[in-house]
Each structure stands twice: as structure tokens, then as C-alpha cells.
Write a structure and sequence with these properties.
By secondary structure, the chain is of the alpha/beta class. The chain is 48% helix and 14% strand. A hairpin with a 4-residue loop joins β5 and β6. Keywords: Kinase, Nucleotide-binding, Transferase.
Length: 245
């Protein structure tokens, strides 16, 4: 099947040059297959775009990929939707299949960052099996290690201005007037899952299910621990040091 022609004539030269320079830079980067593991609020979401751009990797967030497969009505997406409509969890095999599909995209040529998967040792084994079939493997697991008490302070202090998305933190970035947006003066709200009770149950699930995944990959010698309680810039340099080792 012939690939659809792309009309490059109408793409601004600056955009073409930017993409060309990006691809030339990417050509010199080593391939990497990286998994980010850490509890909610540990900063994975802050660091993944930086890693993605620096190493020219594709970012595979399983929740987003599932939604994309469902809306694109791929065969796996249709199966996933059937499970979701019944209120069932999407099976591990289906999720691994969707990751397998996503990895064939040109943007994943240099490798990937996996975020939100694997959450259990069973999933990790299935992922390793699928990668082995492709002749590759996980190169590194970045473990965003952080104390639960630090997370509680981080997460329960978050406040949001709903209409603009501006975020504040009662300790680290407080609004000028407590509970009020700096720009509009409108009241700030908290996300439903930014409460101590919700965090506690999410952390319990993380320690129960996902902690063993770290031990599983540690046996393979691919885990690097990141001190995730540090300020974001320091975490970034730790991540870069780990990835360049």
C-alpha cells in the first residue's frame, strides 16, 4: 500500500529545519528502553517529557494508549472497550499487545519510556516476553524513591484554579491570598484524588503490587534509584546521570 503523500511545500521552512535538526541530533543518540516506576506524586510526569526529548524516545503512557486504541477502533481497542463496558479490567495480554503495536511507530524507533506499566510482576514478565520476541529488552528501570510522608505533604497541598488550570501548593507555591487564584480572585479547589485518604489507598496498592516489580528488575541489574524528594532540576540531573551511565 502506498503511503499517503505529505505536502511539504506548505510546511514553514523553520518547522522543517527544526524537525531536520531534531532528527540529526536523534540519529546520534543510543537506543533506550526505559521504565519509570514510582508512587503517585513522585514526579514521573515532570521528568518523562524531559527524558523523551533528550533521548528521542516515545512516551508510552498505558492509560492514554488504551484510550487511543479504543477511539481508533483497532482490533485490540475493540476488545479493550468490551472489557471496559462490562466494568472489567483490561487483561494484561491486551495491554501488552497495545504496547507492542505502539512500539512499531516511527517515533519509537530509538526506544521508549513506559509509564504506568508494568504494575505487577506478572505484567513485567509478559512485557519481557514480548520484548524478547522482538529481540530487545528493558535497558533501565528508574525507581523514583520517595518517602510516603513527603508525598502526602506534596499531594494534599495541591490547589487548582479550575478554569485556567493554574496550580498552587500551600507550602511550595502558595497563592497570594490563601484559597484564592492570584489572577481572577476566584476560589481554588482540590482534585478529588488529592486527599490524604485517597493517597493512602493508592500508596498501599503501589507498595503491595509494584514494589515487587522493582525487586524483579533489580535481580536483572537494571534498576537505578532516583532520590525523588529533591527539587525537580536536581532530579533531572540524577536521571540524566543514570541514563548516561
Amino acid at each position: 500500500m502506498a503511503s499517503p503523500s505529505v505536502d511539504l511545500e506548505n510546511v514553514p521552512s523553520a518547522d522543517l529545519m527544526t524537525e531536520l535538526l531534531r532528527r540529526m541530533k536523534c540519529a546520534t543518540k543510543p537506543d533506550k528502553r526505559v521504565i519509570l516506576i514510582g508512587p503517585p506524586g513522585s514526579g514521573k510526569g515532570t521528568q518523562s517529557p524531559i527524558i523523551k526529548d533528550e533521548y528521542c524516545l516515545c512516551h508510552l503512557a498505558t492509560g492514554d494508549m488504551l484510550r487511543a486504541a479504543v477511539s481508533a477502533k483497532t482490533p485490540l481497542g475493540i476488545k479493550a472497550k468490551e472489557a471496559m463496558d462490562k466494568g472489567e479490567l483490561v487483561s494484561d495480554d491486551l495491554v501488552v499487545g497495545i504496547i507492542d503495536e505502539a512500539m512499531k511507530k516511527p517515533s519509537c524507533q530509538k526506544g521508549f519510556i513506559l509509564d504506568g506499566f508494568p504494575r505487577t510482576v506478572v505484567q513485567a514478565k509478559k512485557l519481557d516476553e514480548m520484548l524478547a520476541n522482538q529481540g530487545t529488552k528493558v535497558d533501565m528501570v528508574l525507581n523514583f524513591a520517595i518517602d510516603d510522608t513527603v508525598l502526602e505533604e506534596r499531594i494534599t497541598g495541591r490547589w487548582i484554579h479550575p478554569s485556567s488550570g493554574r496550580t498552587y501548593h500551600s507550602k511550595f507555591a502558595p497563592p497570594k491570598v490563601p484559597g484564592v487564584d492570584d489572577v481572577t480572585g476566584e476560589p481554588l479547589t482540590q482534585r478529588k484524588d488529592d486527599t490524604a485518604a485517597v493517597l493512602k489507598s493508592r500508596l498501599e496498592a503501589f507498595h503491595r503490587q509494584t514494589q515487587p516489580v522493582i525487586a524483579y528488575y533489580a535481580q536483572k541489574g537494571v534498576v537505578k534509584n532516583i532520590s525523588a524528594e529533591k527539587p525537580p532540576q536536581e532530579v533531572t540531573s540524577e536521571v540524566q546521570k543514570a541514563l548516561s551511565s
